[in-house]
Design goal:
Length: 807
């Protein structure tokens, strides 16, 4: 295929469809685990300590050492080794909610409506808000701090399309719990002490330890209404440490649920036309278990990529994508297949299947789940995947790898040989939970995760990111419920009320005590075809108390910053009222999260304040429900990622939930823009016409908006260098050759500066016509008011260029 060039896209504020759709899918697909490894670990205790040298660890591949990824300036690098157990993990036995999925009536207001401290700032739903109504007499519901990243004066230029966008949420790493307690206790001292003349209040007060008394005063609790269970909880509270960076909080998930319920267009997944969705033709193939040719579901998928940039590799003129697939009638048929088409060919019908990766005769006891892949220097493919043993009735997941030799003959690709198949990592017990640790707990509640290895090369060094669960250094248990740093509320009253809500609900208590999701990272040693684990780092992101599952990590380095994306479901979290309200409003609760750091191995902060990047908009049982979002970088003229990513997904949940014959299939792709201030947005009009688009170029066609607006790409004479921009008046993607080569990725900021005057003028209207923020009600008037304003004002030009082949 001829090398294509994308030089600039100016995607104006177009018709953002009010109804947006898509959102969920079955996620029992990925996994990871490791064999026996030595690790030495010393975890940093505070993100406020200097971290400058934590990445300069000794790179001896013969010893597996663990450094504090958030370490002090000395970056403690202890070398004590400890044997780790192998084969660990029970991840998501599809929809294994058993005891956790039954949200009881305790989650509603109940007795809490007369005892909970008033704090509407935390509630994602009316149920959540009302369940904290009056235990806090001061009604401390201060607005959550906006947490946009600091930026230079140039970066501060406002994009008129996104003038209403704000990061929201009070991040955990902004909390100094002891300082907050002292400050708020001092503020409430006089009013709080007035209660003590009441005998019931005095009796409850006398049962509190010194720490609990100060916390009760900070939250201005109505002492007379405290139960024995709440007194015990206050006496158990931990507040002696500042939460680490990369912590997803209980409040974050509540705020994300609000954005989902309000269908905030900044994050809402686009609307898709169900009448255009087709089953994946290439997935009609011989099944790995039965050998019978039949239509298969396909879900979690990933490209063979350039591990430095994350871009899809051009392998001898072809693009290669691995995917999980299986018989729709058998939800235990979970195996890996290789699909291929000509590089840049977007015709969904042209994809072909090279067959099951591990051959035929497979069974449901030994499964392989998702991961990542790259090309070795000799042209072989290095596949990283999740090896899963289900023989115990649970999913024992291990991170594994294999080298694949492919054959190409007359346009047909085949898997010729498999070598170096082995387990890489099964947890170390200290930083990451092992299957043996999982077996010691309540396996019906705990969601063991050790899967989804993602290869990434930074400065010539190979790393693997993965989904895991925290180990003994920050393990699951009731202590996580009593740790106020896990809540992220605007006030201590918010945090205490959320804690009371959890302990007064048996389902939420079970969920919260076992929630310890994490995104981990390993440094690889050995050779590219026979890798070993050389170093185990502390988690990049962790979510104790908030959720037990954050999956499919994907990382892209853009302009020196590391952007980490992953997928999640709110119903894997602790906050029953929030995810149940999302389910009721939308019919699903799937999300994509994002984080950013200046360093690969530590310092991650949530994008948009809470980490939300995408929120569900379609019922989980609909044809257009999506999940397994994967961010593919869109490259600039220099061959490096720009601040745009192409989001791929699969569509229609497994096992014919949308009706028999509606198989799980690849969905259309769409674009997300990443702003310098740490916010993101779904780009209007960016849904691809074809399903399964992994490479965006100037031949890409875009689908009409589902509301009927014409949005399409128009080429002129097959010109190689073209400027693609969004015409706000015609609501149309058009192409021009004028000055095409002058508009590059690094000119984006100057384009924004040129539009600053208009943006500043329009910003005054944002408060009235801006996009709805957390806690606001999304109305058509509000949303379309901003769209009309933006469409009447500006075309913003954003540069992409020179999409290079990679081999």
């Amino acid at each position: 295929m001829k090398k294509k060039t994308i030089t600039a896209i100016a995607l104006g504020a177009a018709a953002v469809t009010a109804g947006m759709a898509t959102g969920n899918a079955s996620a029992n697909n990925v996994s990871t685990n490791n064999s026996q490894i030595e690790t030495s670990a010393k975890k940093a205790t505070s993100q406020n300590q200097t971290k400058a040298s934590s990445e300069s660890e000794a790179k001896s591949d013969s010893v597996v050492t663990t450094t504090a990824s958030k370490a002090s300036s000395a970056a403690a690098k202890s070398s004590a080794t400890a044997n780790s157990t192998s084969a660990e993990s029970n991840s998501q036995v599809a929809n294994s909610q058993s005891t956790m999925s039954n949200a009881t009536s305790e989650a509603s207001t109940g007795s809490m409506s007369t005892r909970g401290a008033a704090s509407s700032s935390n509630g994602a739903t009316s149920n959540h808000s009302s369940s904290k109504s009056s235990k806090n007499e001061s009604s401390a519901s201060s607005a959550k701090a906006s947490s946009t990243a600091s930026q230079s004066s140039n970066e501060a230029a406002v994009n008129p399309e996104t003038a209403g966008f704000q990061a929201h949420g009070t991040q955990a790493n902004e909390h100094n719990i002891p300082a907050m307690v002292k400050k708020e206790a001092a503020q409430n001292k006089e009013k709080f002490e007035q209660q003590l003349v009441n005998p019931d209040a005095r009796a409850a007060y006398d049962k509190l330890n010194a720490n609990a008394k100060e916390i009760a005063q900070a939250a201005n609790i109505d002492l007379a209404k405290l139960t024995h269970q709440e007194i015990d909880a206050l006496n158990s509270v931990k507040m002696d440490s500042t939460p680490e960076s990369g912590t997803v909080t209980y409040t974050d998930y509540a705020d994300i649920a609000k954005d989902m319920i309000n269908r905030n267009p900044q994050y809402a997944i686009p609307q898709f036309d169900p009448s255009t969705i087709k089953n994946f033709p290439a997935a009609t193939t011989a099944d790995a278990e039965t050998g019978k040719v039949e239509p298969l579901d396909i879900w979690d998928s990933w490209p063979v990529m350039n591990a430095d940039t994350g871009a899809v590799t051009d392998w001898n003129g072809y693009q290669l994508v691995f995917g999980m697939a299986g018989n729709p009638a058998n939800n235990r048929d979970n195996h890996l297949y290789l699909f291929y088409t000509k590089y840049g060919d977007e015709n969904f019908n042209d994809w072909k299947c090279a067959g099951p990766v591990f051959g035929f005769g497979q069974n449901s006891v030994h499964q392989r789940w998702s991961g990542s892949a790259c090309v070795n220097s000799d042209g072989t493919i290095q596949l990283y995947y999740t090896d899963v043993d289900t023989s115990t009735g649970h999913n024992d997941q291990r991170i594994a790898t294999v080298t694949l030799t492919l054959g190409l003959n007359n346009g047909q690709i085949s898997i010729v040989d498999r070598q170096n198949e082995k387990i890489l990592f099964a947890g170390d017990g200290k930083l990451y939970q092992t299957f043996a640790q999982f077996e010691q707990g309540n396996m019906n509640v705990d969601n063991f995760c050790l899967r989804d290895p993602h290869i990434f090369v930074d400065n010539g060094q190979r790393y693997l990111l993965f989904e895991g669960s925290t180990g003994s250094d920050n393990y699951q248990g009731m202590d996580q419920i009593y740790n106020l740093g896990n809540y992220g509320g605007a006030t201590i009253a918010d945090d205490v009320n959320d804690m009371f809500q959890i302990i007064n609900n048996s389902d939420m208590t079970a969920r919260g005590s076992y929630a310890n999701a994490a995104i981990g990272i390993l440094r690889l040693g050995g050779t590219e075809k026979n890798p070993t684990v050389a170093h185990v780092y502390a988690p990049l992101v962790q979510a104790p108390l908030a959720t037990d599952e954050i999956e499919r990590p994907d990382i892209i380095k853009i302009n020196g910053k590391y952007y980490l994306f992953d997928d999640a479901r709110l119903n894997r979290g602790t906050n029953d009222p929030s995810w149940q309200a999302a389910d009721k409003a939308v019919g699903d609760n799937v999300i994509m999260l994002g984080f950013v750091s200046d360093h690969l191995t530590y310092g991650y902060k949530p994008l948009n304040g809470t980490g939300v990047v995408l929120t569900a908009t379609a019922n989980a049982n609909s044809r257009t429900a999506t999940y397994a979002y994967y961010a593919v970088p869109i490259l600039g003229k220099d061959g490096q990622p720009t601040n745009y990513v192409l989001i791929t997904d699969y569509m229609t949940n497994r096992n014919w939930v949308a009706g028999k014959g509606n198989d799980a299939t690849w969905g259309p792709s769409f674009i997300v823009e990443i702003m310098p201030d740490g916010t993101t947005r779904v780009v209007p009009g960016s849904v691809t016409k074809e399903q399964g688009v992994w490479v965006l170029d100037d031949g890409t066609q875009f689908a009409p908006n589902y509301n009927g607006s014409a949005v399409k790409a128009v080429g002129k004479n097959g010109a190689a260098s073209q400027k693609i921009y969004y015409d706000a008046q015609k609501r149309n993607l058009v192409v021009s050759r004028a000055n095409a080569n002058e508009v590059q990725a690094d000119t984006v900021q100057s384009v924004r500066m040129a539009n600053k005057a208009n943006a500043t003028k329009n910003a005054k209207n944002t408060s009235a016509n801006g996009l709805p923020q957390t806690g606001e009600t999304a109305s058509n008037k509000t949303v379309w008011g901003m769209i009309s304003m933006a469409m009447a004002s500006i075309l913003a030009a954003f540069g992409f260029a020179d999409k290079k082949r990679r081999g």
